[in-house]
Each structure stands twice: as C-alpha cells, then as structure tokens.
Amino acid sequence: CNCFFINLINHDTMKNICLFAQILICMIVVSCQNKKTETADTNEITTYDNCYKAVYEKDTLGLKFNTLADGTVEGTMVMTVSDIAKRTGIIKGKFRGDTLFANYKFTQGENRISTYKTPLAFLKKGDKLILGDWDNEIAMDSTYSASGIAIDFDHIKYKFTTVDCAEK
Asked: CB-based burial of residue 103 (10 Å sphere; 0-12 exposed, 13-18 middle, 19+ buried)?
C-alpha cells in the first residue's frame, strides 16, 4: 500500500510540497514577530486622558488614567516617597459618586518579581484628586481597607493637581 502512494508522488511534486511548506512556515514566523512588535509598540505609546501629580515635601506621586466606557478607571501610578523604594504599578478601579475606589498593584524598587496590592481612595474636588487615608488590614499578602473605618480626606499629604499628560 505504501509503495502505491510513493509511486504516485514523483520527485518534482515532492520538491514543490517541501517548498510550499517552507514558505508557509516562514510566513507564520514573520506574522508572529510582527504581532509581537505591534503589541510592544502599543504598550509603550499608551496615552492617557487624565494626568495628575502630587508633591509633598520630598515626595512626588504621578497618576495617569483613562476612564473606559463602562466607567472603569485604568492607568498607572509612580510613587517616589522618601525613605522607601520607588513604587511603580497599575491602578484599576471605579468612581462611586465623587470618590474613586481603586486597587494599586505595584513593584517596589529594583525588585520586579514581587508585586504588592493595596486599596486606594481618591476624592475628586473640582480638578483635584485627594488621596484618602484610613486604617488597612493585611491578609494573604494583600492590603485591604478595614471595614467600618471612615476615610480621612481632610488631614492628608497628597493632593493631586492636573498636569499635561505629555509631561514626563
């Protein structure tokens, strides 16, 4: 039975099949590489609609985010605070009334392996955002707001003002 099929496929046909397979494989490899490049470029060029900066003594916090159609807020925040390593991460949340409740998932300093997560609350007053302060609890390597505790927006360090989103 095998001899019958081998006799049907002559040498020239086999060369054509191999050439076609090689071309197909090359096209797939090039296509995958182009998609990786496009994704990397897209991630690097992210633009934001809302950009804020807070400065308190030697501390500087930068917050950039977009509000999606479903009301979800997604963006980035960089915290350069004296006495702790620089924190860089993503912020995701949603406004409830005039308050943005979000989770901040970040890395600290040069350690890019360990990630930390903490809840944040920002009160929107005019064109400013005020980072609230309240007691937190830690469970399973994540920080959670202590239930029943009021958020303090009066005695705080960080008041964010709007900045040009092109600002570094």
From this structure: middle
Residue range 75-106, pLDDT digits in tens? 999 999 998 999 999 999 999 999 999 999 99
**Backbone phi and psi for residue 3, each to the nearest 5 degrees, phi listed first:** -65, -35
pTM given for the model: 0.66
DSSP state for residue 166 in the 8-state scheme: T
Sequence letter at residue 119:
P
- Among 121, 126, 128, smallest CA distance to 163 is for 128
Q: Tens digits of per-residue pLDDT, 66-75?
A: 999 999 999 9
Instruction: Tokens for 149, please give them.
Output: 């505790």
Instruction: Note whether 91 and 63 are within 8 A (CB).
Output: yes
Nearest to 112 by CA among 79, 91, 89: 89
Location of structure tokens 């830690």: 138
**Three-state secondary structure call for residue 64:** strand
